[in-house]
Design a protein that fits this description.
Length: 130
Amino acid sequence: QLQLVESGGGLVQSGGSLRLSCTASKLPENIYAIGWFRQVPGAEHEGVSCVSVSDGNAYVVDSVKGRFTISRDIAKSTVYLHMNSLKPEDTAVYYCAADSTLTPQAMCDLPWPRENYDAWGQGTQVTVSS
C-alpha cells in the first residue's frame, strides 16, 4: 500500500522560505498525480500545487502563484513544495496526496475527501509569524 510522508514544516518569519518534501514508500506506475493541500482548523483542505508524476506538468493555485513552486525527483520518489515570500495566512497543516486518475489541475482545483485519494500523508505544520 502506498504511503506518503511529509517533512520540512516549521516556524518561519513572514517573508521567509521553506521547502516541504513528500516522500512515497514506492511510487506505483499507476499514480498519475501528486498534490499538496493545506488545512486550517475549522476549514476544509484546499489545493495548493499539484504535479504529474510522469511528465512533471505542474499546476499552482492562484492564491500562491508566483510564490510557491512544485517539483519532483522520481529517483527519490519525492515531490517538493518550494514556498517563498511566506505570509501569515499561509499558516496551515500541509498534506500531500496521490491519485491515479486526476490531472494536476483537477486534483488541486476540486479537492476530494481525503479518503478518496489513493494515499494521503500525515501532514506537516507550517507556521508563519508576522
